[in-house]
Amino acid sequence: MSSVGLSSEVLKGIDEFVEKLEGHYSKESIQQIKKAYTFSKKAHEGQIRRSGEPYISHPLGVAGILAELQLDSASIITGLLHDTVEDTTVTLEDVESEFGEVVSHLVDGVTKISQIKYRHSHEKQGENIRKMIVAMGKDVRVVLVKLADRLHNMRTLKHMPFEKQARIADETLAIYAPLASRLGISSLKVELEDLSFRYSQPESYYELAQKVSKKRKDREKYIEEVKTVLSDEIGARSNIEFEVSGRSKHLYSIYRKMKSRSVDYDQVYDILAFRICVNSLQECYEALGIVHSKFKPIPGRFKDFIAMAKTNNYQSLHTTVIGPGAERIEIQIRTFEMHDIAEWGIAAHWKYKQESRGDGQVDKTGVEKFNWLRELVSLHQQTRDADEFLENVKTDLMESEIYVFTPKGDVKEFPEGATPIDFAYSIHTDIGSRVVAARVNGKMVSLKYQMKNGDNIDVITSKNQTPSKDWLKFCVTSKAKSKIRTFVKTEQRDKAYNLGVELLEKSLRKEGFSVNRVTSMPEFELFLKDQGCNSIDDFYIRIGYGKITPLHLLKAIMPQEVQTEEEQDQGFIQKALKKVVSKKKSSSPILVDGVSDMLVRFGKCCTPIPGDPIIGFITRGRGITVHRADCERAFEMDQDRQLDVGWSREEVAHGGHVRLRVISHDTPGLLRFVSETFSSLGVNILNAEIKTTRDKKAICHFDIEVRNTSHLLQTTQALARIKGIIGVERVSGS
Length: 734
Ligand code: MN
Hints:
Layout: H1 14-21, H2 27-43, H3 57-68, H4 73-81, H5 84-87, H6 92-115, H7 121-138, H8 140-155, H9 162-182, H10 186-200, H11 202-214, H12 216-237, E1 242-248, H13 251-261, E2 272-278, H14 281-294, E3 296-297, E4 303-304, E5 317-322, E6 328-335, H15 336-357, H16 365-368, H17 371-380, H18 386-397, E7 402-405, E8 411-414, H19 420-427, H20 429-434, E9 435-440, E10 443-445, E11 457-461, H21 478-510, H22 515-519, H23 522-531, H24 536-545, H25 550-557, H26 565-570, H27 572-585, E12 590-592, E13 600-602, E14 614-619, E15 623-628, H28 632-636, E16 642-647, E17 657-665, H29 670-680, E18 684-692, E19 697-705, H30 709-720, E20 725-731
Parallel strand pairs: 2-6, 12-16, 13-15
Antiparallel strand pairs: 1-2, 3-5, 4-5, 5-6, 7-8, 9-10, 9-11, 14-15, 14-16, 17-19, 17-20, 18-19
The structure holds manganese (II) ion.
C-alpha cells in the first residue's frame, strides 16, 4: 500500500476535472459543479494571476484539492466560487439564488475569513485565525476550503514577489499547517510544511533536499529489505491480514529533528518510518509482539496512541527498533480504519457522514469527536482581543506532549509546561478558579509545578480561592488563560465602574451640578457617542480608569459654565486655596480599601497607612494613586487631577509599610529589647539595617508593617521608653 497524499498535478480544465469526479459524485452534483465553474469563470473574466494564467485556474485548483479530500459537492462548489464575492461584482445573493443556501453560507464564511484587513500583519494573523475558528464552529467545511485555498497558493508561491514569499510561508507554518495537523489531515499538513520550509528557509531546504536525494537509491533498497523481513515474519508467525509500507519522513520533519537535537543530517537516524496496517485492534498488539521479537526495541520509544488517542483522534502504536544494519527505524502499527483517520482526519469523518446522508446537510457528529475544536470555538466567545486569542491558540495548536492521569485513572493530554492550573481548568472552570495546590503522585506541589508524563494529578480546591493575574505566568492552555483573563477583567471592570460612579458624583457636586442634571442633557448623549462609549456603564468604567475625567465631560457639554484651562491657570492660587477649603467640608470621601485594590495604589515615596492624612490623584488609565498629604511628590502632581480621599477602614492586616529610624547608644542586648517590643505589639519586621558610628552610637532602619497610625504611635512610644534609645522617627520611602 502506498502512502496517501494529495497529487499536485495541475488540472487543465473542467473536462479533466469532471472526469476525475465521475463515479465518486452523483450526476446532479457534477452538473452543479460544472455550473459553478462556468459561473466563476465568467465572474473572474479578464482577471489574470501572477503566473500569467487566467484567474479561474486558482479556484479550479482549490476545487481539485477538495475533491481529493473527498469532500461533498457543496465544498467543491464553494472552492470554485470562494473568491467571487470578494474579488468580483458577484454578490452573496447571486450565489444563493444560483446555488442555494448551503453554498452561500460557505462562500460567506470563506469570504469573511479573508476580508478583514488590518494595519499590522500580526494583528491580521490573529484576527484571521480567530475568524477561522468561529467559522469552524459553524461549519468546518469553511476551514477546509480555506486550507485548500492556502495549499494552492503555496503551490503557486513561486510567482509571488520574493519578499512576500517568506512572510506567507511563515504564516502558513505558524497557523495553517498546525491547523491541518490539529484537524488530523496529515496529507495537507505534510505538503504545507514542506512548501513553507522551502520558501521560508530556502538555503536549508535545498541543502537538505540534496543530501536526502543523494541517498535515495540506498534508502529505497533498505526500505524494500525491511518490508520483506517484516512481511515474512508476520506471515510466518500469524494469520493476520496486513499491509506493510515504508517511506522516508518528510523534509520538514527531518529538519525539525536536526534542529531539536542540533545534529547534522547524517546523524539523524530515525528518518525511515514503516507502517503496518491490520484489521483489528487485537491484531495491532499481536503484530507489535512479532516486530519486537524480531527487532530489538529501543527503551522509552514505545507509544500507545491506541489506548490514549491524540486530541486530533490519531490512533496508532509507535515503536522504534534496531533494524537490519543496526539502523534505527520507526514502526507504526494501526488498523486500516485508524489509518484513514490518520491521513484524512476530520475530512474522513465528514466523508462517512455525507455518504450515508447524501443530502448535503451539515452533520456535526464527526466534528464533535474533535473536543479540541469545540473547546476552542466556545473560548472564542470570551476572547475579544485578536492578539490575545492568537497567543492562546498557538499553544493549543502545538502537538501535545504530556499525558497525565486523573484520580479516576482517566488520561488527559497537555502541552509541555502545563501546570496543575491547566489540569484543574481542563476538568471544570469552577475547579480551575478554586485550585490552591495539587498532589502529584501523592506528594503536595505548588501551582507552578510542571506536570510530567505519567503523573497522577489530584487538585486541591478552596471555596475562598479566586484566580489571580499571576497565574497567567504559569499556565499554558488557552482554556485556563482565557478563563483567568476573563475573571480578572470582570473584577477590574466592576471596580472601575464603582469608582467611576463615585468620582463623577463627587466631582460634579463640587462644581455645583447634579449627576441627574448632567446625564439628562441632550449634549450628554452626544458626548457618549463622541467618546465611543457603548453604554452608560461603559462611560462610568472609563471614568473609573481615568480615561475620561469629569472635568473633560463638563468642558465638553457646558463650556460656558466651566473655566477654560487658561482661566484656570491664572486663578491657580485661588483655586488651590479653594481646594483646601473644600477638602475640609468634604463629607463623602472616596473609599480606599487596602493595597490589594487594583485601581487604588499607594505612592511608593510615602507609603501612607490608615490614619495618615492622604490625597489622591487620578492617573491616566491606572486609577487612583494615593499619597500622604505632606508627601513631596504629591506637590508635584497636576492639581487638576487631585481628589479627596479618606480611609474606609481603620486598620489593615498587611501592607501598612513604615520605615523607622531608631538612634541609640551602641549597647549590647539592645536589639533584643527592640525586637521583643515589636513582637509584643504584633508588629512584623520586614527588614532591618544597622550601622554603628564612631562615637559609639547605632543607627537602625526598620521596615515594619503596622495596622494604622495609632498602632504606629504605640510602637514608637514603646521603643522610645527602652533604655539606651535616643530617638525614634518615621522616615519616608522604603
Ligand atoms: Mn483564493
